[in-house]
């Protein structure tokens, strides 16, 4: 994936920095939880009959993170997150109206896209005063992806297209920026922005290839709670 190739050099650079600057006296464990809004981007948000269009709509996400600091400015990160997106049924139906030169009589029914992602990253921290800090986190991971049932029905001829729900696993990549504010020695709140991508392959028995690849990319806008141990 292009995003993996782009961030891999930074991951390796941060890994080297973590090893060089590790300081035992700065070691600490930090946990954080996040919830927020997920917005599809690029092909995943496409609403025309292009090959890679996903017809995804805005959804939500929840995420848990563990940080192990190995120095004043560096940490290791492990996270697990769940995201869900709707399917733009009206836009999908409109594409059939355009293709068939129709204005009515076609309906689309679809479930929701779902993604469960586990990732690992290296954290670069910039302290701002005594209460604020900014984190930059490139991540690589593994995603379990769910494509929903999709059925298109013509009132006159019945079902004209269908895709059965399917699950797929794929490598994933992401990058996150996070602002932490600590209102006590142990507790804080955070705001974060994350970009994520993966490319799962799903089965489609109605197509010639019997499968299709869906480029998935989205961004998360989250608020969360931080606990320092």
Provide tags for this entry.
229 residues, Porin, 3-stranded antiparallel sheet, 2 helices, mainly beta, single chain, elongated, 13 strands, 8-stranded antiparallel barrel
Plain-language structure description:
With 229 residues, the protein is mainly beta. It has one domain: Porin (Beta Barrel), CATH 2.40.160.20. It has two helices and 13 strands; from the N terminus they run H-E-E-E-H-E-E-E-E-E-E-E-E-E-E. The chain has helices at residues 2-21, 89-100; strands spanning 28-40, 56-69, 74-87, 106-110, 113-128, 132-147, 150-154, 158-163, 166-182, 187-198, 201-203, 211-213, 216-228. An eight-stranded antiparallel beta barrel has the order 1-2-3-5-6-9-10-13. A three-stranded antiparallel β-sheet has the order 4-7-8, with helices on one face. A hairpin with a 3-residue loop joins strand 5 and strand 6. The chain is elongated. The two termini are 36 Å apart. The model is unreliable at 10-25 (pLDDT under 50).
Overview in brief:
This protein is mainly beta and 229 residues long.
* Structural shape: elongated
Number of strand elements: 13
Cα-atom Rg, whole angstroms? Answer: 21 Å
Domains counted in the coordinates: how many?
A: 1
What is the typical, i.e. mean, pLDDT?
89
Low-confidence runs (pLDDT<50, min 5 residues)?
Answer: 10-25
Secondary-structure blueprint of this entry?
Layout: H1 2-21, E1 28-40, E2 56-69, E3 74-87, H2 89-100, E4 106-110, E5 113-128, E6 132-147, E7 150-154, E8 158-163, E9 166-182, E10 187-198, E11 201-203, E12 211-213, E13 216-228
Antiparallel strand pairs: 1-2, 1-13, 2-3, 3-5, 4-7, 5-6, 6-9, 7-8, 9-10, 10-13, 11-12
